[in-house]
């Protein structure tokens, strides 16, 4: 797997002359040429090369597209550019048109939220049999962490640091979706998310571009299998392009604003990785990027996506994003539709604007018909690649069942996502986890313990809470009468309820919109009572996924909602040992818990196998191996908080020797009332065993710049021996970080540039090697071009972003 992680599709152009220089006979000429070539290479070398997608490039496929296009009327062409939500709604104000009629006229290219053989076949029969050119509809759906079999949420999957896990989730999701008539999924979401106030962090791979890119590739591979023509492949839609995760102040749909360098170096890599992996479609975002909305942005959609990356699939807007361009105040309906189309948005999701205002503008000559033709071509190409023309329908299969195989797959992934945040020894007991038989009576307390709906996690459009095995159900099975249970309090208080009642998400699972207002004082007293009768109390606390996670679920606080904190403090006050299991889709503020609770397990929103997976770790059947994909703050005021900070001239814990004496106390970059650092940093996660790292070794401590620029890969390799020094087998995610210590543009204090998951028996040592070359060492210079300059990189290897085992690499002229 390590090899697979490290083998990446070439995305860079290397300039041959650099290599040829060796053969120039005259030494001075050689030196001169070296200088010239290296200088130009430093600015132009290794820029991104468009990578054509072989799935969409075949001559035969394109010939079919052209033949069909020739026969289409303008209305039929525009029909291909529209998508309607003909089932439930996953956004505001779904249109209510007569879809049968539109489909018969060939004026519905795509539909979303129509699921199952019966419903999809209904519309498909109309399109295939009644429309003039028999063009199939492409049905799209939000398949986010499984289709019917619901796995842990994507942020949890990222915590496994295991691309194979992401691939497996996508694979089963694709099979199940396809069997339900869905050949196109609105996944993966690869927005870099550095601010947990933003509820959509739950759908993401977290804060880091390197980890995010590795996972982006894996999701695409799992869905598309490098072959869209397979009956169980689905086309992906990589979203939300671009930089949606950087919404100012963590408020959903808000603008983003950043330098082009940050955009390219931090936010774009995962989208690019997904495109290079063959992504067939991309979803344009709601947010504006430096003043230009993502759904009408020629720079991101045409210049970068198509020209630089060579993307040849199609772009669908996010839900209503084209019509909403009017709210961005960049024009009226016809103007914004034209801007979106010309910028490169091919399909209008539930906006009903392309369908109404494009044709007249083509007729009046305002929009060249060739712009429409190009968009139609891109959409038809994907339809042909998926073989929808040959296999438009789906057979009605047996009703979905969460079979033992599917459960095993969901449990395996969930097991890997658990992050042990803390496991301090308790006096006279030792480490609380794993639970031993010494704990005769166990109290299970908390609103998440038996809440099937919230354990499923956000975005489970077709998931079923009946498939969930809750913590209570599983612990009861394992402990029988030794388990005492109390809910303790609700997830929301009456106050929360008042605010949230009107903004519930409208997915199928959100059937019950009323929030019961619990009598917290009474239920907390019951919880305290059972805690006092037990040997250990497990608190299952978290967030309501239905109300507080995912889209339109931004928060200004990151603590436990409702009376949960009060409940936690009351149970801790009993003096009984407490294990806190956190079930939430975002990093929560756990400062009080970290100070007062000896054992904390981050279990995210684990999906249908929630109970078994949490129990696996609690009882030690599985040794936890997850690592945080996003920093956990001490206080919400630190957000956005991420480990790869850029340096400051007045670091709080830096070298103060060059600064006046009072600097250490006052004039440094810090908060008056809180540490700068994360409570639990990126990459953090404990195990029931211990791992030790030997001094890392590098095979070349100096490498010539020209070789790095010429693409010699690896230019150097860092190797490290990792040993399991504890008493049980375990998996460790070995992480490599670099710091470029001298560059023309200041570089982050640390950046992840390699990772590998290794499993070690007690006493076993494994050697892990990390290759370094242009791909790992480059950065964007002031001209927003990727480059490497002469410098020294400090390199750390270890089990988190706090890694201390160090070596270095010099890149010399
Ligand atoms: C809006 C969301 O932003 C997007 O992620 C989703 O795919 C669409 N709605 C369709 O439901």
Could you explain the architecture of this structure?
This protein has 813 residues and is α/β, with parallel strands linked by helices. The chain is 32% helix and 16% strand. The protein contains 28 helices and 29 strands. The strands form seven sheets. It has an eight-stranded parallel β-sheet with strand order 9-6-5-4-3-2-1-10. It has a six-stranded mixed β-sheet with strand order 11-18-17-16-14-15, sandwiched between helices. Strand 7 and strand 8 (292-293) form a beta hairpin. Helix 10 packs antiparallel against helix 18 (404-417), helix 18 (404-417) crosses helix 26 and helix 22 (520-532) runs parallel beside helix 24 (564-572). The chain is globular and about 80 Å long. The protein starts with a helix and ends with a strand. Mean pLDDT is 91; it is low at 1-47 and 501-512. 1-deoxynojirimycin (NOJ) binds at residues 90-91, 112, 142, 186, 239-240, 318-319, 551.
